[in-house]
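User: Sequence recovery, please. Input:
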């Protein structure tokens, strides 16, 4: 049995907000809202939190991919990382050397400058 050890927890980042009282700034994005971008019904993008809404901290998107849908070819990003949490189905990710399958519950991460591509071979609908 292993016990939680507070010495193994990474340090908390420095404070960016220094006022004594919290802001009233939380918001909600409903899961049943239509997609923000629909690629002919093959891939649907839901922008859950974009760069403008998070003051550049991050972007979070839900992507619904039909069995006939695909992903981008080999590429890399100079300014951002990519992270994928597979909600259902299988997403194939190219890591620069090999194809890796991410299945339901898996997390895939590509750091800035990391070579990546995603491929969607015909199968059931995927969500990430």
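Assistant: Recovered sequence (128 residues):
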């Amino acid at each position: 049995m292993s016990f939680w050890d507070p010495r193994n927890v990474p340090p908390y980042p420095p404070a960016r907000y220094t006022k004594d009282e919290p802001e009233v700034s939380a918001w909600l994005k409903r899961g049943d809202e239509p997609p923000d971008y629909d690629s002919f019904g093959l891939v649907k993008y839901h922008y859950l939190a974009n760069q403008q809404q998070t003051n550049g901290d991050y972007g979070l998107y839900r992507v619904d991919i039909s069995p006939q849908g695909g992903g981008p070819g080999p590429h890399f990003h100079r300014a951002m990382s990519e992270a994928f949490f597979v909600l259902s189905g299988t997403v194939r990710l190219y890591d620069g050397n090999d194809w890796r399958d991410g299945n339901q519950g898996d997390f895939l991460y590509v750091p800035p400058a990391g070579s990546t591509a995603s491929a969607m071979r015909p199968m059931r609908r995927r969500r990430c």
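The chain has one domain: 35-128.
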